[in-house]
Write a structure and sequence with these properties.
Main location: Golgi
CATH architecture of the largest domain: 3-Layer(aba) Sandwich
Keywords: Glycoprotein, Glycosyltransferase, Transferase
Strand content: 5-15%
Helix content: 25-40%
Shape: globular
Radius of gyration: 28 Å
Pfam families: Glyco_transf_61
Subcellular location: Golgi apparatus membrane
Structural class: alpha/beta
Protein name: Glycosyltransferase 61 catalytic domain-containing protein
Strand order of the largest sheet: 1-2-12-8-9-10
Number of helices: 15
Length: 465
């Protein structure tokens, strides 16, 4: 009897020992995987931190993530699939017939026998930004209950996005709108027809951008708030793909496209309507035309000695046109001006997005106020180089910034903006550099920059007219 008990005890002990080693192995394996992941994450973050310096959060957002189309092209097991892995956007796909009810902002799958599924998505590529996203309306995608009857039938897929948020700021119209639209169409719908569905947009938006929207679709644009009946599509993609601030990453596109391809699109949209009569004069053979972007009515970053600057520009030898774009300035007029000019100069701001209209090889000088160095390159410098422009930056000194008078030259936000911004780019700091700061150019120092621009612009004019 004692032998039997002893034998059983030994068996139990052996089983317990085996169980311990199994649990230990699982624990070690899981911990190993976690530590490997943590190390990878830490390494990536550290590399980004060392490489980019300040604006950590913003700059991390500017890095391209893995290509979303691979996820959306996986074998379809569900009618609705969403990729929420990117820091900038969510991208959802309805793989099969769908009915859109504009009254409830809901897409219903048709004829689905699968269990009910509901997804919510905000189709605006600034997911990382806590301030603006609460103002973007959610769309509902559902496989149940039964869809409403279809009233208007479309034979091509729908691409759905929001033109809300910061729309109305010319930079954001392109950074958050047309560049992601270009990327998405060339990623998911290359050489395919689509219907564009806009979940929200200002009343002026469809007419202002009608020529450009026509480059993406031959079908009428559907604005949900104006729609009164249901529409059905063979499939739908909800959301736009963004590669980062003013970025088109060719390596993430199935058929590589670049900013040069995007500019060709702009030329097709606005070139035919570009009328020389808009211009005040034809450029003379001896003088290249320079466009000075005016910010006199803007909130911040105004050139306080602009009258003296204008005299200097003319003295250097340029024919000068002061460009003061308004929200409803027809884009074919802006295109006509910039596309026929040889140089453009302006202080960092949304209007510099018009540099898209400059011909490759033209001169583009961005005046960079203190504290905005990284944004200046990320928003316009990188794009300018991709467009093959003769790009340069004039970084103002402390004495050229109005902040020196307001806060004192020894104040950290004037003396060392980099140190101040190490903790991030909160609104209160951003507003100081973007809205409180004006510029009084050191004209003797800036004259050297102008002379270099004149030499390059003259060379470009002699070669290209």
């Amino acid at each position: 009897m004692k032998k039997t008990i002893s034998c059983r005890a030994a068996t139990v002990a052996l089983a317990a020992l085996c169980l311990f080693f199994i649990v230990f192995e699982i624990s070690v394996s899981s911990t190993s995987r976690f530590l490997k992941y943590a190390a990878t994450t830490t390494t990536t973050y550290s590399a980004n931190t060392q490489e980019e310096g300040n604006h950590e959060k913003t700059k991390l957002i500017d890095q391209p993530n893995s290509h979303p189309s691979e996820y959306l092209q996986l074998p379809v097991k569900r009618r609705i699939i969403c990729d929420r892995t990117d820091v900038r956007y969510d991208l959802c796909s309805i793989n099969g017939p769908t009915v859109l009810d504009p009254h409830t902002f809901t897409f219903f799958t048709m004829g689905s026998a699968q269990p009910p599924q509901v997804e919510k998505v905000q189709p605006y590529p600034r997911k990382f930004e806590g301030f603006i996203m609460p103002h973007i309306r959610n769309l509902t995608l559902t496989s149940g209950p039964q869809s409403p009857p279809c009233k208007v039938r479309h034979s091509v897929p729908a691409l759905v996005f929001s033109a809300g948020g910061y729309t109305g700021n010319f930079f954001h119209d392109f950074n958050d709108g047309f560049i992601p639209l270009f990327i998405t169409v060339n990623t998911i719908f290359p050489d395919q027809e689509i219907v564009i569905v806009v979940s929200e947009a200002p009343n002026w938006w469809p007419s202002k951008y009608a020529d450009l929207l026509a480059m993406f679709t031959k079908y009428p644009i559907i604005i949900l708030k104006n729609a009164t009946t249901t529409h059905c599509f063979p499939s739908a993609t909800i959301g736009l793909i963004s590669h980062g601030f003013m970025t088109i990453n060719e390596t993430l596109l199935p058929n590589p496209k670049s900013f040069m391809d995007f500019r060709v699109l702009l030329e097709k949209a606005y070139g035919p309507k570009a009328q020389p009569k808009f211009l005040t004069s034809k450029p003379t053979r001896s003088r290249p035309r320079l466009v000075l972007v005016n910010r006199e009515m803007a909130h911040g970053r105004v050139i306080m000695n602009q009258k003296q600057l204008i005299r200097l520009i003319k003295k250097v030898g340029f024919e000068l046109i002061v460009f003061n774009p308004k929200r409803m300035t027809p884009l074919h007029e802006s295109y006509a001006l910039l596309n026929s000019s040889h140089a453009m100069i302006g202080v960092h701001g949304a209007a510099l997005t018009h540099s898209f209209f400059l011909r490759p090889g033209s001169v583009f000088v961005q005046v960079v106020p203190i504290g905005i160095e990284w944004g200046a390159y990320a928003f316009f410098g990188r794009m300018a180089r991709s467009l093959d422009l003769e790009y340069s930056e004039y970084k103002i000194g402390v004495n050229e910034s109005s902040l020196a008078d307001k806060y004192g030259k020894e104040n950290l936000l004037v003396k060392d903006p980099f140190a101040l911004q190490k903790t991030g780019w909160p609104p209160e700091v951003m507003n100081i550099y973007l809205k409180e700061q004006n510029v009084k150019l050191d004209l003797e120092r800036f004259k050297s920059c102008l002379k270099k621009a004149y030499t390059k612009a003259t060379r470009f004019m002699e070669k290209n007219g």
